[in-house]
Amino acid sequence: MTNRWGQFSHCFKRQEVPAKVILLQEGQISRTMFFIEKGCLRTWINNDGKDITTQFFFEGDRVASIESFRANQPSLYNIESLEPCVLQTISQQDFQNALENSSEMKKEMEEHLFRRLLHSQKLLYSYLKNNPQKRYEELVDDYPHIIQRIPQHYIASYLGITSVSLSRIRNRR
């Protein structure tokens, strides 16, 4: 949570969750935004019984199914803790009030959404242009902490490959 959110600190609730907890299920309406103090969350979708990781979030990140959170639509994905986490949570209503009462918060949210869009576009184009080896190299270069903290099967899922293929790619480096 950034310092600018300090004036709204009364709106936040501290939540500690163990690893492997589903905080939001695909198809549910998102009513909470999570600010990560400690730990790691991932977003993922279920594709015919196989889970596909779409993104990882770490300390300092905020996470919500923003499309669901803002538009009251069913979430397109799950949010799950990968490590024990300490989270600060804010409700949909309190978040909306903060945006309406602070142009700084509105600007910060705009920047957050822009960064998220940029990340999503970069990932999409990487899937379209690059082979798995190149996608892995980009991940290592851009987000080395992911390689250090995330189990291999989640990284493979994120890259759209099997764990066996990821092992081969890692052995080639």
From TrEMBL:
Pfam families named among the record's database cross-references? cNMP_binding
Q: What is the protein named? A: Crp/Fnr family transcriptional regulator
Q: What SMART domains does the entry give?
A: cNMP
Q: Which domain of life is it from?
A: Bacteria
| Stored CDD domains | CAP_ED
Alphabetical list of InterPro entries matching this protein: cNMP-bd_dom, cNMP-bd_dom_sf, RmlC-like_jellyroll
Q: Where is the Cyclic nucleotide-binding domain?
A: 23-116
Which positions carry the signal peptide feature in this UniProt record?
none
